[in-house]
Write a structure and sequence with these properties.
It is built from seven helices and ten strands. It folds into two domains: 1-84 and 158-243, 3-Layer(aba) Sandwich (Rossmann fold); 96-157. Helix 3 (100-110) packs parallel to helix 5 (142-156). The protein has 243 residues and is an alpha/beta fold.
Length: 243
């Protein structure tokens, strides 16, 4: 397998650019997640966050640049990547003919999971889905569908978890529960990168700030206390203009 000098990193992104037709949506994105971390990819709607996450998960191939998962090129070794990275998109897809609980069972059996039933039930209860376990996902609200996608992702425990705008469709209580769960997973060694245009319930380890397909800031979360995402982005843009 083709490696990379930063082979110990959960994720290495090297000069990634992406073009839709004549328009560059991502421009020379470079960063790394060297280990367990909870990182927020922050930016306004249209900044390129979703496109970047799709490139990181191997769902879209960059026009330029490379993505490495634990030192292995995603696009040359897709099976390796699929086993190590999971993306929950902003509108998770489901099978129309399966109920919410049948999705849980399907994921568990397809991935040969053991001991999954008790934690799966706990997560469904925490997110207010247990009473809807026999409902079909297309009958659920957008927020409940996203919660179901999160429950399925948490079952699989990938080394790298990517979440596209998870805070948007969640009520404040569910957002707080999710954040607590993500902090626990980070403590167990998971690297988590979530996109958001909303201020998270608590400080992450790090903020990556995006504007117009460019990374304009990389800040430790502890240094941004009491600042909203809007303020962080405004400060980063001012620094760029001033520089």
């Amino acid at each position: 397998m083709s490696g990379h000098p930063n082979h110990g990193a959960h994720l290495t992104v090297s000069h990634v650019s992406y073009r839709y037709g004549p328009s560059w949506v991502l421009n020379d994105i470079t960063f790394a997640l060297p280990g367990a971390a909870l990182v927020v990819l922050a930016g306004r709607n249209g900044a390129g966050k979703s496109t970047l996450l799709r490139c990181l998960a191997g769902w879209a191939r960059p026009t330029r640049g490379e993505v490495f998962i634990q030192g292995v090129r995603v696009y040359q070794h897709e099976r390796h990547a699929r086993a190590r990275v999971l993306l929950v998109p902003d509108t998770p897809p489901f099978y129309d003919e399966l109920t919410a609980w049948e999705h849980v069972q399907f994921v568990a059996r397809a991935n040969r999971l053991t001991g999954w039933r008790e934690p799966a039930e706990r997560w469904l209860r925490q997110f207010g889905l247990w009473s809807a376990r026999d409902a079909y996902p297309f009958t659920l609200s957008r927020g409940m569908r996203y919660k179901l996608g999160l429950c399925l992702a948490l079952m699989l425990q990938p080394p790298l978890l990517l979440l596209d705008e998870p805070l948007g469709p969640l009520d404040p209580v569910s957002a707080g529960l999710l954040w607590e769960e993500l902090e626990r997973r980070r403590g167990e060694g998971m690297a988590i990168l979530l996109s958001s245009h909303q201020t998270p319930p608590a400080d992450p380890d790090r903020y990556l700030l995006m504007e117009d397909g460019v990374l304009i800031g990389d800040l430790p979360g502890g240094e941004t206390a009491d600042q909203t995402l809007e303020e962080l982005l405004a400060d980063a843009l001012d620094a760029q203009i001033g520089g």
